[in-house]
Write a structure and sequence with these properties.
256 residues, alpha/beta, Metallo-beta-lactamase, Chain A, 6-stranded mixed β-sheet, 6 helices, binds the ligand N[C@@H](CCC(=O)N[C@@H](CSS)C(=O)NCC(=O)O)C(=O)O, dioxygenase, mitochondrion, Metallo-B-lactamas, Mito_Persulfide_Diox, RibonucZ/Hydroxyglut_hydro
Length: 256
């Protein structure tokens, strides 16, 4: 007798929220696999000041936060990853090995961060800092389409991260954006860690056409980056040391 099995597997469903912290103009991203019974979730680039807002949203949506991740060691705000770990037991902090920062999980190019049946792929995009990475949603029929790239400060919308401190290099940034971001499918949605002009999202194809810095040749790009004349971020002296230890510098027990 023939037996018939119905395999009715529905594709994983991505829950996605873009959150904004207005003092540093930072975007935090919440992603979760909602078709998984646990609804495993992760946060990319959380800010200390908005941790309670973000965790409340996670709770309201019934998600299980498993990762608090950074694209790099931020210089303009304190990361929320350390606070989150203190408030939600079991959450693991994630950052690149190349950042030299403390965390539970260290990633490098080619690594995958799984949440339920979804995953993020790690691409090394140094130049703004040595340890910058871009997290890209997985390729494949059971992953969200179009793909999404969380570029941190490597590539902004019609701009890019500055390269004048923290081991930055315009040469590295030019190379990494062209080889690791501009090689993604043109319809890939690109989400940066900051925006100062009111934009929220772009696509790889759009930036390849209209980014006023990265569409230039390498020599012109170097010249642009050397002449940005930006003031140092107001919080740099507090933020960098704190972010090297997951944002928890002031909470470490002090020696007598
Ligand atoms: N005014 C802000 C800092 C602004 C700034 O320098 N932004 C960085 C990313 S955060 S380190 C950047 O790379 N900007 C590039 C650009 O072209 O604007 C503050 O004081 O915090």
């Amino acid at each position: 007798m023939a037996s018939f099995t119905t395999l009715s597997q529905s594709p994983p469903k991505l829950l996605f929220r873009q959150l904004f912290e207005k003092e540093s103009s930072t975007y935090t991203y919440l992603l979760a696999d909602c078709s998984h019974p646990d609804k495993p979730a992760l946060l990319i680039d959380p800010v200390d000041r908005t941790v309670d807002r973000d965790l409340n949203l996670v709770k309201e949506l019934g998600l299980k936060l498993i990762y608090a991740m950074n694209t790099h060691v931020h210089a303009d705000h304190v990361t929320g990853t350390g606070l989150i770990k203190g408030k939600v037991p079991g959450v693991k902090s994630v950052i690149s090995k190349a950042s030299g920062s403390k965390a539970d999980v260290f990633v490098e190019a080619g690594d995958k961060i799984s949440f339920g049946d979804l995953f993020l792929e790690v691409r090394a995009t140094p130049g703004h800092t040595m340890g910058c990475v871009t997290y890209v949603t997985g390729a494949g029929p059971d992953q969200p389409q179009p793909r999404m790239a969380f570029t941190g400060d490597a590539l902004l919308i019609r701009g890019c991260g500055r390269t004048d401190f923290q081991g930055g290099s315009s040469q590295q940034l030019y190379k990494s954006v062209h080889s690791q971001i501009f090689t993604l499918p043109k319809e890939t949605l690109q989400y940066p860690a900051h925006d100062y002009k009111g934009f929220s999202v772009t696509t790889v194809g759009e930036e390849m056409l209209y980014n006023p810095r990265l569409t230039k040749d390498e020599e012109t790009f170097k010249n642009i980056m050397e002449n940005l004349n930006l003031a140092y971020p107001k919080m740099i002296d507090v933020a960098v040391p704190a972010n090297m230890v997951c944002g928890l510098q002031d909470l470490e027990p002090k020696a007598d």
